[in-house]
Amino acid sequence: MIKSACHDDQAENYDKKIQEDSLDKFNYIRENYFELHDRVIELLELKENDHILDIGIGTGLLEEKIDVKCSISGIDISEKMLKITEDKKMNIELKPGSFSEIPYPDNTFNKIYSCFAFHHLDTYEKMIAFKEMERVLQNNGKIILGDFMYENEDALERLKNKFYKENRADMISEMEEEYFTDIEWLMDAFNTENFTIRKEQISTISWIVEIQF
């Protein structure tokens, strides 16, 4: 499992760095970063009686855009990032936690979401994460993941060829070091009679997957 140290190191300048990177049209990692946040909020369809959880809340950039007075909880492995979110004085319950260890009882939330954190988990850890999210999710709840993904193995090869042609060794390295999600694998793994799954592409490498229980 990824350690908190690198996230702690990024915490102090994280918001500024995200803003700067998102203006760079050659930065695939931050391409449509805030647009993905906006779309996740739309898909959450928030109501005042919702109890929602953000896994990997970071510095609370998405929550700054939420204007519905619902119950919001956020967890992260980086206590420094949690402290920055806390200092923003938003009405959010913050706790240290991770995909594999969500510090809440069963059936606590009706909506769970995560942006740009799921790619830190390998396939085995992703399976554990889904079991843990299902544990704390209420019946008829939903999970929304916004992250680095690709449709299937063919799409992955097309992406790699694109980056090779563009001499983007940085992106090749990124895809080798992180665990971008294969959407076809995800849908095969969880698309049973108990789930409805939809996908939506936001940028070259960013997608949103919505899982309705």
List the helices and strands and how they pair.
Elements (H helix, E strand, L loop, with lengths): L4 H7 L2 H9 L10 H12 L6 E5 L15 E6 L2 H9 L4 E5 L12 E7 L7 H14 E14 L2 H13 L3 H9 L3 E2 H8 L5 E6 L4 E7 L1
Parallel strand pairs: 1-2, 1-4, 2-3, 4-5, 5-6
Antiparallel strand pairs: 5-8, 7-8
Helix pairs in contact: 1-4
Report the end-to-end length measured between terminal Cα atoms. Answer: 27 Å
Helical stretch tally? 8
Low-confidence stretches: 1-5
Average per-residue pLDDT, rounded, comes to 94
Report the sheet with the most strands, covering strand number, pairing sense and barrel closure.
8 strands, mixed
Q: Tell me the helix content.
A: 25-40%
What is the H-and-E element order? Answer: HHHEEHEEHEHHEHEE
User: What best-fitting shape do the alpha-carbon axes yield?
Assistant: globular
Briefly note the structural class of the backbone: alpha/beta
